[in-house]
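Reading group handout, session on sequence-to-structure problems. Before we discuss, look at one worked example. The prompt was deliberately terse, the way you'd type it at a terminal:

> structure Carbohydrate-selective porin, OprB family protein

The input record follows.
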Amino acid sequence: MFLRQTWGFGGGKQALESAPNQLAGMVDKRRLVVTLGNLSIIDIFDSNAYAHDGRTQFLNWALSTYGPYDYAGDTRGYTWGGAAEYYYDDWVLRAGRFMVPLESNGQRLDTRITKYHSDQVELEHDHVIGGQSGKVRLLAFRSKEIMGSFSDALAYAALNGGTPDVALVRKERIKYGYGINLEQSLGNDIGVFARLSRNDGKTETYSFSEIERSMTAGVSVKGSSWHRDNDTVGFAVIQNGLSKAHQEYLAAGGLGVFIGDGQLNYRPERIMEAYYSYSLSKAVSLTADVQRFYNPAYNADRGPVTVGSLRLHAEF
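And the output record:
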């Protein structure tokens, strides 16, 4: 539930297609858009035409957005806040502030948004190369939350004994990170994409994934060449990594929200994902997806693992 207001400043007209959270219509190329309410941050920030929507595209979280982007949200990925977007011809500048959870990956949000919050700013540029459109996005985020530090947890365990636990050393801290997002059309039916991102890696995961460095790249192909215009096939590769402090915390037996192995034999996690989305009708699609994980949870002693999935999506 959110309120969105647009102010037009001329510069010509631009057509918007109907999409989730967006009504079709004509808007000014130069405009200010303000959104306030309850929403997912990545419905506004870090979009990508080929790798963003887990309902219709890739399933892996590191392909839906930057893996290290610990964007604020409750356990469903939603939060309260606001964002402003200023469009000026081929440029877009976005900024937003949103509530953070009261505790790591918790459902309840901290309403003290002036004290604890997640801020993000993004610069986007549209371009044309060889007659084909593309976009470049740069994003930076900064979150102020009650978090545990990996190094503090290790020091506390060394002094008091036991297994390191970030929950024992939580206090007011800052987390920041950044990323670059590329998408490029190579024709009417083919597009490629890539993301490169990292965060400071000092504190526990608060809202998203246990990734602190990430590189992703892939391709998306429409089915026109085999007479299936509404089908899509996609392939992507991922490499995720952890900070040195996080590695040491896990190696000492510490646990995170999703990972924790004890005696960690660290290696970067590498993943390949492929999917085929088969259009059953204009509103319904069936997707077959397969992922291959090497060094799952950053442990060279584990895997490889193959995960297959089926997804049925209906949109009216």
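Points for discussion. First: Helices lie at 61-64, 150-160, 244-251. Second: The mean pLDDT is 94.
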